[in-house]
Amino acid sequence: MHGSLARTDLARQAGLSYQAVSNITDGLLEGGLLSVVRKRSGRRGRPPVELSINPDGAFSLGFFFDQRTLRGALVDLAGAPRAELEAALRSPEPSVVLPAIAAMAALPMFEETASDISLLLKSRGVEIRAQA
């Protein structure tokens, strides 16, 4: 979902009934994953409410490492990076990499980006690239 859409537009694009989309979006609004952007005007009747992804609704913390480098990134629900960090590794051994990931994840730059990151962090990931 890019930008904002009304429930009727979502229903049409997804091939679902308005009621199904309304039930789904109500849950996402209550969970803070969607937000009300505005109400359209200029039409007869009740104006449709436009919904958008709430970037602060959830975050993902991901790590990438190779032979000598560890990178960490915190990304919001809209996919925008909120914090990024890079550190050198002595070796790619698990005994070196895992403590480095734990230390990086505990840094204030990641924690302070969201008001309660422990509740908002929806996914974590590590990418490992094997050298051919």
Strand order, biggest sheet? 6-5-4-7
- Structure classification: alpha+beta
CATH architecture of the largest domain: 2-Layer Sandwich
The percent range for helix content is: 25-40%
Radius of gyration: 20 Å
Number of helices: 5
The biggest beta sheet is recorded as: 4 strands, mixed
CATH topology of the largest domain: Nucleotidyltransferase, domain 5
| CATH class assignment of the largest domain | Alpha Beta
Number of strands: 7
**Averaged pLDDT, please?**
82
Q: What is the total domain count? A: 2
Given as residue ranges, the uncertain stretches (5+ residues, pLDDT < 50) are none
> Shape, please?
elongated
Give, in order, the helices and strands: EHHEEEEEHHHE
Give structural notes.
- The protein has helices spanning 7-14, 18-30, 94-105, 108-111, 117-120; strands at residues 5-6, 34-39, 49-53, 59-65, 69-76, 81-88, 121-128.
- A hairpin with a 3-residue loop joins strand 4 and strand 5 (69-76).
- The protein is elongated, with a radius of gyration of 20 Å.
- Helix 1 crosses helix 2 (18-30).
- The strands form two sheets. It has a four-stranded mixed β-sheet with strand order 6-5-4-7.
- The protein is α+β, with helices and mostly antiparallel strands and 132 residues long.
- The chain has five helices and seven strands, in the order βααβββββαααβ.
- The chain folds into two domains: 5-53, Arc Repressor Mutant, subunit A; 57-128, ATPase, nucleotide binding domain (Nucleotidyltransferase, domain 5, 2-Layer Sandwich).
- The mean pLDDT is 82.
